[in-house]
Design a protein that fits this description.
With 503 residues, the chain is of the alpha+beta class. It has 4 domains: 135 residues, Schlafen, AAA domain (Methyltransferase, Cobalt-precorrin-4 Transmethylase, Domain 2, 2-Layer Sandwich), CATH 3.30.950.30; 79 residues, no CATH class; 163 residues, Heat Shock Protein 90 (2-Layer Sandwich), CATH 3.30.565.60; 81 residues, Winged helix-like DNA-binding domain superfamily/Winged helix DNA-binding domain (Arc Repressor Mutant, subunit A, Orthogonal Bundle). The protein contains 18 helices and 24 strands. The strands form 7 sheets. The chain has a 7-stranded mixed sheet with strand order 13-12-16-17-20-19-18. A 4-stranded mixed sheet has the order 1-2-5-4, sandwiched between helices. The N and C termini lie far apart (57 Å).
Length: 503
């Protein structure tokens, strides 16, 4: 069997042997107690890879197949427990087959915070993990390095809760609770939520406490944000017809939560969302791709750099640019790319409210679905300015002809595709009533059989692309509703109300 890129890369790591960014643990039947000390040390130093099922000399022992699931579960539970690792972190465990044995690989990025394991601070050197808790100078150096490396941790001691949008804090609390019923933010006071999210910190060198740049950018009032970062803006531009200027523009100078919503609204306004099935489930390619692009533009930006972020929709492609602290230069090769957190606190906050994925997984989705959306792989270019280029299906360009030197749209088709009468009735209902649940549809049409409604009305309309789910990522949700797509509205416009009445 041919070896995958990940398997080959893991073998190459094993050949290198343990070092500053690589640690082996045997863990055949259970996790070693010092596994979490290594996680803490990697977080505090430069990050690294932890391989479970490997002896110190590089021999591959593997993890007991009957224990793999439990070991993975125990690991994830522990690192999310602030009594074990504090602040808690979010890591994923990957299985890899080597010599017919299962090895568990954990990539641990460098953190912007100083972490403790069981109340102790660990750092990393070539010889392994060091407990530096009682070495005041080493601890001070560690805090200084973290705060100078990640500008999101910059403290503003004179900023107060009055500088924050408390309504926005309430909103993100509710989102987090809806995603996880027992989310700890539910029972916390406002200040405790900010501390839990690392948006309110204490400088261990000066003893000063206050809101961080991350906290103000995420939840701050507009005047507070622009006082601290006067150059902050995300420029959303549509430039299809008037190439010298723009056809539409939205200049976004607000908090990152609402900036994300404005970006997604601009994209939904100007970009198509072609019908795409994965198995028997419809995937919104536009939502999946631009969710990653929007979050990437906001999460990985260097906010102390005055370069304005941009999202430009052109003919057939979308270009984004934002300031960046590069960890390499040139095009990113997904095959050997190692994700590096630029603003881990902001990224973690976005993950808590479901607007970003785990480090690296969002980019994999962008690569996976980008080609299906626009016909070619997205391009990502690392540098002082980080750029993403995504192609999209430009239906307007395809239906435009040159007439006397001017762009003139061709005549729209006058014959609508034939559909089953049940589909036509459903489209007319949704045009009249807007979004409807399955129960709403059955009641309005006098239908009793839920299965018949799905098979004869909903499924054909979904497959044809004439309707879509309001909660496409949760097709079985009890809150699911259905609405017309642009294709459905176009079909109705061609058919006309008179013909609809005769269906």
């Amino acid at each position: 069997m041919e070896m995958s890129d990940f398997e080959h890369k893991t073998l190459e790591l094993i050949k290198q042997g343990e070092g500053l960014t690589l640690e082996f643990k045997e863990c055949c039947h259970t996790l070693n107690r010092d596994v979490y000390e290594s996680v803490c040390a990697f977080l505090n130093r430069h990050g690294g890879t932890l391989l479970l099922g490997i002896k110190d000399n590089g021999d591959i022992l593997g993890v007991d197949p009957d224990r793999v699931d439990q070991i993975k579960k125990d690991f994830v539970t522990a690192i999310n427990n602030p009594q074990k690792i504090n602040p808690a972190c979010y890591l994923s465990v990957n299985e890899v087959k080597l010599q017919n044995k299962t090895v568990l690989s954990v990539y641990i990025p460098e953190s912007s915070q100083v972490h403790r394991c069981n109340g102790r601070i660990f750092d990393r050197n070539e010889d392994g993990d060091l407990d530096i808790t009682d070495h005041t100078r080493l601890v001070a150096d560690l805090y200084h390095r973290k705060q100078s490396t990640y500008s999101e941790n910059k403290l503003y001691p004179y900023a107060t809760l009055a500088d924050l949008r408390m309504d926005l804090l309430s909103k993100v609390r509710k989102i987090a609770e809806l995603r996880h019923e027992d989310h700890p933010w539910r029972e916390m006071a406002d200040l405790d939520v900010l501390k839990s999210a690392q948006l309110y910190q204490t400088d261990r060198e000066t003893g000063k406490s206050g809101l961080t740049l991350a906290g103000i950018m995420l939840l701050g009032k507009d005047d507070a944000i622009l006082t601290i970062v006067p150059h902050h803006r995300t420029d959303l531009i549509l430039r299809k017809v008037n190439l010298d200027r723009y056809d539409d523009r939205d200049l976004v100078c607000t908090n990152l939560i609402e900036s994300y919503e404005r970006i997604m609204a601009f994209v939904a306004k100007h970009l198509p969302d072609p019908f795409y099935l994965e198995g028997d489930t419809r995937i919104s390619l536009r939502k999946v791709i631009f969710r990653e692009i929007a979050s990437n533009t906001l999460i990985h930006r260097e906010y102390l750099n005055p370069f304005p972020a941009k999202l430009i929709i052109e003919r057939g492609q979308v270009l984004t640019e934002n300031s960046n602290k590069p960890h390499g230069f040139g095009p990113i090769n997904p095959a050997n790319f190692s994700p590096y957190p630029k603003n881990p606190v902001i990224a973690r906050f976005f993950r808590e409210i479901g607007r970003a994925d785990e480090l690296g997984s969002g980019m994999r989705k962008l690569i996976k679905y980008g080609k299906a959306y626009g016909g070619s792989d997205p391009a990502m270019i690392e540098g002082d300015i980080f750029r993403i280029i995504v192609k999209y299906p430009d239906f307007e360009a395809r239906t435009t002809e040159k007439v006397e030197g001017r762009d003139t749209p061709t005549v729209a088709p006058t014959v609508a595709p034939t559909v089953a009468p049940t589909v036509g009735i459903l489209l007319a209902l949704l045009q009249k009533n807007g979004e409807c649940s399955s129960m709403d549809i059955r009641q309005a049409l006098g239908l009793k059989d839920r299965s018949h409604t799905h098979k004869s009305y909903l499924q054909p309309a979904l497959v044809a692309g004439y309707i879509e789910m309001t909660l496409s990522e949760k097709p079985n949700s009890r809150f699911q509703k259905y609405r017309l797509t642009d294709a459905g509205r176009a079909w109705l416009a061609i058919v006309g109300e008179g013909k609809m009445r005769s269906l």
